[in-house]
Structure formats: structure tokens, C-alpha cells
Amino acid sequence: MSTYDESNGQSHVQGGAAGPTAPAGYNFEQDSRPGSDATADAFGAPMATGAADGAFPVSPATPTKERRGPGWGAMVGMTAAAALLASGGTFAAVRYGADGALSSNGPIPVATGSTTQTVTSQGTIPDWQAVTAAVSNSVVSITVSVGESGAVGSGVIYDSQGHILTNQHVVAGASKIMVTLADGRIYGADIAGTDASTDLAVIKIKDAPSDLTVAQIGDSDSLVTGQGVMAIGNPLGLSSTVTTGIISALDRPVVTTQEDTGDSFGNFDQPQQAPQQGGLGGLLDMDQKPTSQVYTNAIQIDAAINPGNSGGPLFDGSGKVIGITSSIASTGGSGSAGEKAGSIGIGFAIPVKLAQKVADQLISSGSASHAYLGVSIGDGSAEAGGVLRTGAKVGSVEQGSPAANAGLEQGDVITGINNKVTSRAAALTGFVRQYSAGDKVTLTVVRSGKSQQIEVTLAEKTS
Predict the structure, then answer these.
(1) 93-121 burial, b if ≥16 CB within 10 A, otherwise e?
(2) Residues 290 and 318 occupy one common structural domain
(3) DSSP 348
(4) Are residue 360 and residue 385 in the same domain, yes or no?
(5) Residue at a domain's end among 369, 399, 427
(6) Residues 46, 168: one domain?
(7) Nearest partner of 153 among 144, 165, 162, judged by Cα
């Protein structure tokens, strides 16, 4: 997460990089972030549904201050090109042709049991009817209260003890959390831990029943662009809503803006403007405490997701979770009531490899740690071997940091990490965040017109 100083064009991030300016006419908005009161109807303010910035209004039966979906905070920045390979995604993807569709003739019973069932397909198109029946009981709806306001989101059952994986912005500042299972049973829940820097959280059902259906976790390292995906969630408070689509891109660097308020809902309506690609106008200091931005190399999908889908699972064709839906892109257009549009077919999910790593830490200790490189970076470019490449340009190196120990220098342009492309600063930030302290990574660095490989042992930042 980062803070951006408009007076000097600098942003500061722990393990992060400056996000580029959003394309003209587009706002990238965080799915289901809590905003202000749901009764506001001004452009950019939360609508009657309670979902700020990004949902068509649905007028409630009676005027209330209920926020029916955490508002979508402005997302700024996406790199022009995605990295070539999936990074850090841990949800298994079923490749087309390997596991196709089951015959869907006749009714398909909804699965019950301690874990979801793996769906074996025959052909090239997943049988989403069978997948839905197999996994729907592992998805929950989340309702949170803060004073007189409320909001809704989604989650996925992570283990038999009642831990639910969701987004941090869904439960941030909640004084009361209620979880509704797919069969309609309602339970209270407590926050087990949150991690604002990745927008992930784990809550735990109070007195969890013994018959919870636990989701199966996949391996998103094997995800491929074009494969089918399915999202289940609680958009606009419409529980157990199923949408399908494909993976449009992998390792898409996105930067979402949120307030790390700790005990209250933040205002996520204002975008953070970041510098244009090609310069060092905005530097991210990886040593700064996260304050306002989340950097993710996301799974981009065209399955429709809307406010309320936040925190819900993204499944592959075999019924395994491959991501946690978290944000969408929006045209920022307005209708007759001045509302912004919802899904336009560009949504984003946090890869489950990262989500699983963070969730395990949150369950164990209530907090999560992240790898630390120790540089300030911005978007830049450099030529090596007659080829011009864009990357993360080093503005400064902290003394005694992993970067300094490895020999990184001011002016270096980092164009890759472990054979994955880092065409912008935000991409490097997202990749670094996926690693843990002690991990060794190989950076591709252009210096003085030559490309070289530099090995860095990442560390954990200490205060």
C-alpha cells in the first residue's frame, strides 16, 4: 500500500511500486469496498445498493443507512503488458482438453460433505452445472455492521474449523460480522486476522458446525489464458450468484486504493494519480508502512463480478479455487441517476497461491509478513543489445538492504524476476509480495546498456 504526494509526484510503498496513471476515461475500482452511507446518490458516492462506485442502484424497500455492499474504491494503474507466466497463483487450473465436461443430462444433486468434490470433465468445455453443484456449499455470504451502517461481501470456507477466507476491505472496521451458509444457516464470526497490504482477511465462524463443506485449493501456477473460470458470490446481496467466463490475462499488475484505517471504514472513492510510464516521477519506497495502496499481479477475468462479490472464490473447471475475486475495471460512465456502471467484463482476482500463504499466517498468528527488497522504484526503460525494454527503474537503494547486499544500484532497470516480465514498477511490487523472507530470486537487470542476472535473498522488513 502506498501514499502519493501530489506536490512532488512521489509514492511510498513497502514491497511495492508506483502505479501508472489509468487510461483516460477509465476508473479502476475496488470491488465491494465499504464506503459512506448507502443513501447517497451523487456520482462517485455509494448507491442505494450500498455499493460505492461501480454498481447500478437498487432502491431499498425503505430508506435506511444500510450499506449493502462495500464500495468499490478507485483502482489506479495497470501495466501495459502482463507478465508471460502466472505468478504466485495457487489455485489449480484444469487445462482445456484435459478435463472437459460431464454429461449434464438430468438433475445434478448439490454436493454435501467435508470437502468439495473434484469434477472430472470429458471434452473441452467444463460442465459448470456439475461444478456449481459440487462447490456451492463452500461459498458463504458475509454481512458486516459498523454502527448504523452495513455492508455485504463473500467468502470461501477454508477449513473445517470454520475459517473463512475473504477480502480485508469486506470486514475492515466491522463491529459485527454474520456469515450465511449456502443452505441459509446464519452464524456470527470474529476476525482472525487481516492483511491490508494484500487486501486479504480470515474470519472464523463462532461455534462452527461440524458439517462445513471445505473448498479445495488448486494450483494457479498452471493457469493458462483462455481457460474457463467460474465465480460464486453475493453481488449486491444476491447470494449464491454464479457467473462464468475465461481468464483474459495472467499477472496483470493492478493497484487498488484503500484507507488502512484499522477501526473504521475508509473513503475509497478518490483515485490515487500515479506517474506516467517512462520516468521516475513516482518512487515507491519498499520500506514504508503500507497506508493506502494494494499491489497485486492479478488474474484478469471476463466473468461478471460486482460489488458484493468481493472475497468470493474463483473456481476452475474441476471445482478448485484458483483465486479470490477482489476488484473490477469500470468505464466510470453514469446513468440517469448518476451511478457508475458495474461489471464491464474486466474483473480481477488475487491468485490463491498468495491468498493461501497469507491465510495460513493469519490463522497462525493473526498477521502476515512479506518479503522486502529495499529499493525505491518507478517506471522506466533501458536499452540492452539494441532492444529497448520497460521495467522498474531503481531510484534509490537502502543501505544494508537485500538489494544493497546483492549489488543493485541507482539507475538500474529491473525487467524481470525469476523469468517473469516486470514491465512496470507495479509488476515488480506484485511479484516481490508473493515471496517470503529468505527466498532467493533472480532479477534481470539492465545497467549501462547490458543485461545481467543478479541473485537477491529477500528479507523481512523490521521496524
Answers:
(1) bbebeebbbbeeeeebeebeeebbbbbeb
(2) yes
(3) E
(4) no
(5) 369
(6) yes
(7) 144
CATH code of the domain covering residue 151 = 2.40.10.120
Give CA–CA dist 233/98, Å, rounded.
27
pLDDT greater than 60 at residue 255: yes
The helix or strand, by DSSP H or E, that contains position 402, with its residue range, turns out to be helix 402-406
Give, in order, the Cα–Cα distances in Å from 410 to each of 376, 388, 413. Answer: 9, 19, 9
Distance in angstroms (rounded) separating the CA atoms of residues 235 and 41: 19
Query: Residues 375, 455: one domain?
Result: yes
Do residue 141 and residue 270 come from a single domain? Answer: yes
Q: What share of the chain is helix, strand, coil (3-state, %, to 5)?
A: 10, 35, 55
Q: Contact at 8 Å (CB) between 17 and 424?
A: yes
Euclidean distance between CA atoms 332 and 326, whole angstroms = 18
Bridge partners for 265 per DSSP:
none
The string of pLDDT tens digits covering residues 171-217 is 999 999 999 999 999 999 999 999 999 999 999 999 999 999 999 99
Give the model confidence (pLDDT) of 371-397 as tens digits.
999 999 999 999 999 999 999 999 999
Kindly indicate the confidence band of residue 257, based on its pLDDT and cuts at 50, 70 and 90.
confident
* 240 three-class SS: coil
Beta strand segments in 99-240, E:
139-146, 149-157, 163-167, 176-180, 186-195, 200-205, 228-233
Write down the pLDDT at residue 333.
52
Residue 363 identity: I
pTM: 0.71
In sequence order, what E strands does 160-310 have?
163-167, 176-180, 186-195, 200-205, 228-233, 241-257, 284-285, 293-301
Q: What pLDDT does 266 receive?
A: 25
Q: What was the pLDDT predicted at 292?
A: 59
For 227, the grid coordinates are 481457460
Given a contact cutoff of 8 angstroms between Cβ atoms, the answer to whether 142 and 179 are in contact is yes
Instruction: Count CB atoms within 10 A of the CB of residue 60.
Output: 15
Residue 453: give the domain boundaries. Answer: 371-460
Same domain, 259 and 363: yes
- Residue 63 shares a structural domain with residue 199: yes
3-state secondary structure of 152: strand
**Residues classed as catalytic:** 169, 199, 310
Q: What CATH number does the domain containing 396 carry? A: 2.30.42.10
pLDDT of residue 118: 72
Q: CA 72, CA 68: separation in Å to the nearest integer? A: 12
pLDDT of res. 34: 33
392 and 293, same structural domain? no
